[in-house]
Amino acid sequence: VAALIIRGDSLVGSNESAKGIQDYYNAMKCFNASDYDRCTFNASIFCREGYARRQQNQTEALESLNNSIKLNRNLSDAWYWKGYIHNEQGKYDEANRELNEATKLKQWNGYFWLEKAYALLMLNDSSKDSSKEAIRACNQSIQLNPDNDYFWYYKGWILNDLGRYEEAYWALENATNLDPNVGYYWSEKAFALFNLNRSDEAVQACVKSIQQDPDNAYYWYYKAWILNESGKCEEADQALEEAIRLDAAYESYRDELICL
Fold first, then answer.
1. Does the structure show a pLDDT above 90 at 112?
2. Stated pTM of the model
3. Does residue 251 contact residue 244 with C-beta atoms inside 8 Å?
4. Residue 251 DSSP one-character state
5. Which ranges in the chain belong to alpha helices (H)?
6. pLDDT mean across residues, the chain
7. Which of 108, 179, 213, 225 could connect to 183 by a Cys-Cys bridge, CB 3.0–4.6 Å?
8. Residue 24: is its pLDDT beyond 50?
């Protein structure tokens, strides 16, 4: 049974979900224990199946996760993956309720709190003050693991989205200090800096993002946009040309850069 589950997990991780799910079902057939243990075991299998199906068929994935929860309401991963899928579908109210369950059951998992933060941000319901709850969820993830650079980045991204640029800058400063080799940390930091009227530093942050991934057309375009907004038209034109060279779709953005 254990070998079938391990192989199933490996196949799912290798994008061979159908074969992996078949191994899960075979494991269910082979499992021999009391009714209680079988119920708990089957719940974990249905949860694995939901995870495996989430990219190909979200309806079937949710059905598997619902089966998992019916058998074991205390399985935090099943609640988490339901919330994750509903976030992807834009069903943020449902996602928030499910992620509430997940975080109650497994309070120490920072990624559960981040997914909850996203649902709360997207709810955008001022009567519930969901944006403040989103920041609290981010803080909870960071409190659990203060050295996780991605958690700091995520908080910075949310704060930028809320227009709280000074706080966003300091969150992203922590992210880039913890791991200076992630390009999108620097581009998000550039956004905060630009909105704090620190354009030269914003350009330097763009340069840092490009250094991490010089073939990323978006990073070149973003540099062009900031340079353009700062009145540095010639440099903006050079950056945009590089973006277009890497991805011709950026030609359509030329009209947005008004000083070119």
1. yes
2. 0.81
3. yes
4. G
5. 2-13, 17-30, 35-53, 58-71, 76-88, 92-105, 110-123, 130-144, 149-161, 165-178, 183-195, 199-212, 217-229, 233-246
6. 86
7. 213
8. yes
Distance CA 36, CA 29 (A): 15
Query: Among all chains, which residue has been given the structure tokens 């903006």?
Result: 236
Q: What are phi and psi of 74, to 5 degrees?
A: -95, 15
Buried b (16+ CB within 10 A) or exposed e, 72-93: beebbbbbbbbbbbbbeeebbe
pLDDT digits (tens, 9 = 90+) for 118-164: 999 998 764 557 888 999 999 999 999 999 999 999 999 999 999 99
Q: How many residues are recorded in the chain?
A: 260
- Name the DSSP letter for residue 98: H
CA distance 203 to 222: 9
Long-range contacts of 36-42 (CB under 8 A, 24+ apart): 39/71, 39/72, 40/71, 40/72, 42/71
The model's pLDDT over 38-88, given as tens digits with 9 standing for 90+, comes to 556 555 665 666 666 667 788 888 988 888 888 888 989 999 999 999 999
Number of C-beta neighbours around residue 70 at 10 A: 13
